[in-house]
Amino acid sequence: MNTIINIKRMLRIATAATLIGMALTAAPAKAQYINGSFIKGCNLAWLDGEYNNWLGADPTELSWGVSYNSTHLNSYMANMHSMGITVLRVWVNEGDMGDNINGSDYVTSVTSTWTANFANMMQLAANNGIKLYVCLNNGRSDWLENPSQANSYLNNALIPLIKTYKGNGTIFAIDLMNEIDGTVGGSDGNYGTGATWAQAQAYIKNFAAAIHGADPSRLVTCSSGWHAWNNLNKYFKGLGLDFYDFHDYEDNPSFPTAASLGMDKPIYIGEFGQSTATWSDSIQNSAWLSAANRAASYGYAGLGIWDYEYPGSSDYLAMVNPNGSWREVCYTIQSWSHSSGNLIANGTYTLLNVNSGLALDDLGGSTTNGSPVDQWASNGGNSQKWQLTNLGNNVVELLNVNSGKALDVAGWSTASGATVDQWTYGGGANQQWTVISVGSGAYELSNVNSGQALDVSGASTANGGRLVQWPYSGGANQKWTFH
C-alpha cells in the first residue's frame, strides 16, 4: 500500500515538474543583439561585378589589373546609409586577391595596392556611417586540408591586418570564410567531396584564437550557407566564435525562432534574398519585409540583404535598377524599423482571415476544452471575439470571450496539420503566438511551441473551415487582420 502511495506521489511530482518546465520554456525569448540593436545589413561582396580583382590583383591573373573605384564605392555606401543600413559585408581575399604567393601557393605578404585600397574603403565606410563586416574568402577547402598553407595566410596577411586595425570600430566583425560548409564533403556539406567537418572546425578554432590573440575586442564568426540554419548547432558551437551567421534564400521565410536553435551566442542572418530566380520587385520586397519582421520577432541579431550589386547589373537579387535608381525594397528598408513596442495592443479583437474574409470562431459557441476552432462569417458574437494579451516580444495569448479558453495547438503537437482548438490557459508555449507583420495591415500568427503558422486548412473559404498549424508559406489563408 505504502509503495503504491509513494509511486502515485512521485508521479504527481513528476507531472508538476513537467508542467513547470513547460511554463518556463514558454516564456518569450528576448533577442540577443551584437551591437545593442537589430542590424539592418547589406552585402556588396565585390565591386562593380569584378569578383576577385577589385581590391587588389589576382596573383594568378595579373593582366586583369585592379578595378577598385573609390567614387563608385562611396556612392553605393551613401545610398546604403540613406536606407538606414549600418553593416556592410564585403569579401576581401577571394581568389587570393591582393596576396603575394610563392610557387607552392603559400601567402608571403600582401600587396601595397590592396593595403591602400582597403584603407580607402575603411575611410569611406567611416565617412558614411557604415561598419564593415569583413569576409576573408569564398571557400578554400585546400586551406582546411593543409593547415600550414592556411597559416601562411593567417600569419603573413590576416594577423598584420588585424593588428593594423586593432580596436578600430569601423570593422564590425571578421567572417573567416563565406559558407564554409560548401568546402566540406558529404550530406551536411556540399553533397560531394571536400574537407571534413573536423578539418573545418580546426580551421575555425585556429583562426578565431589567433585573431582574438591579436585583438581581443575583434568579433569573429564563420558563416554557414548550404544548409541555412541546420548546421549551426551541429558544428559551430565551442569554437571561439562571438556570434553565428547563417544564410537563407526564401520567398516566404520559414526560419525558426533563434532560441529554438540552441545556440549560446547571438545569431545574425548574414545573407537573405528571394528564392525565385526572376526579376520581381514584389517578390523581392515581400520576401525581405517578411524576413525582417520574422527575424526581429524571433530573436535574431539582424538581417543582411543580398545584395546591392551596381548600376547596370541584371542580377535579379540586385537592390538597384540597371539605371542605378532604387528598387522598391530599398524604400522598404529605409522606412522599416524594429520597435520594442507591441505590434498589436492589448484588447479584444475579431480576427479575419485575409483569404476568406471569415472570422476566427469558437465552433458552435462551445465552452469545452478541446473544442476545435473554425472560421465563420463575422457576426459580432462573443465566440468570435478574442482577448489579446501581450507577453513580451510580440508574443501573445488569445482567450475566447465566450469560453474564456485559449487558442491552443492540440496536444503540444509540432506536426504540420495539427488541430488548433481551445483549452484552459496554462501558460504553455502551444498556447502562445508570435505576431509577425506581413505587410498591408496583415499578420502571421506563429505558434511559439511549433514555429508553425495559424492556417485555414486547405485555404477554405467556407463557413466551418477548420484551423490547423502549417509551415508559413505566405498564403493569404495564413494571414490575419485585427478588428
Description:
The chain is built from 9 helices and 23 strands. The protein has 483 residues and is an alpha/beta fold. It has 2 domains: 39-335, Glycosidases (TIM Barrel, Alpha-Beta Barrel); 342-482, Trefoil (Acidic Fibroblast Growth Factor, subunit A). The strands form 7 sheets. Strands 7-6-5-2-1-10-9-8 form an 8-stranded parallel beta sheet. A 5-stranded antiparallel beta sheet has the order 11-15-16-19-20, with helices on one face. A two-stranded antiparallel sheet has the order 3-4. The longest helix is centred in the N-terminal third of the chain and has 25 residues, at 2-26. Residues 1-28 have low confidence and may be disordered.
Tell me the count of domains: 2
The CATH class designation of the largest domain is Alpha Beta
State the CATH topology of the largest domain. TIM Barrel
CATH superfamily of the largest domain: Glycosidases
Instruction: Compute the CA-based radius of gyration.
Output: 26 Å
The helix content, as a percent range, equals 25-40%
Spatial sequence of strands, sheet with the most strands: 7-6-5-2-1-10-9-8
Kindly, what is the distance between the CA atoms of the first and last residues, rounded to a whole number of angstroms? 58 Å
How would you describe the shape?
elongated
Level-2 CATH architecture of the largest domain: Alpha-Beta Barrel
The secondary-structure class comes to: alpha/beta
